[in-house]
Amino acid sequence: MKGVRTLSDFVAELERRGDLKRVRREVDWACEVSEIASREVRADGPALLFENVRGAEFPLAVNVLAARRRIELALGRAPAAVGAELEEMLHAFPPRALGDLWSLRGSASRVLAMRPKRVGGGPAQEVTASPDLASLPHLQLWPGDGGRFVTFGLVLTQDPETRARNLGIYRMQIYDARTAGMHWQIGKGGGFHYHRAERRDQALEVGVAIGADPCTLLAAVAPLPEGIDEMAFAGFLRGAPTRLARARTLAMDVPADAEFVLEGVVPPRERRDEGPFGDHFGHYSHVAPFPVFHLNALTRRRARPIYQASVVGKPPQEDKFMGEAVQEFFTGVLRVIHPEVRDLWAYFEAGFHNLLAVAVENRFAREARKTALGLMGTGQLSLTKVIVLVDEDVNPRDRAGVFGAIARHFDPAEDFLLIPGVPLDTLDFTSFTMNLGSKMVIDAQSKPGETAVAAPPSAAPPDPRATEETVLAHRFAWGAMLVVQVKGEGRRVVERLVRRPEYAAVKLLVAVSADVPLEDDELLLWGIFTRFDCARDVIPAGIETRGAWASCRGPLGIDATWKTRYPAAIENHPDVIARVDSWWGKE
Question: Is 279 assigned a catalytic role?
Answer without folding.
Answer: yes
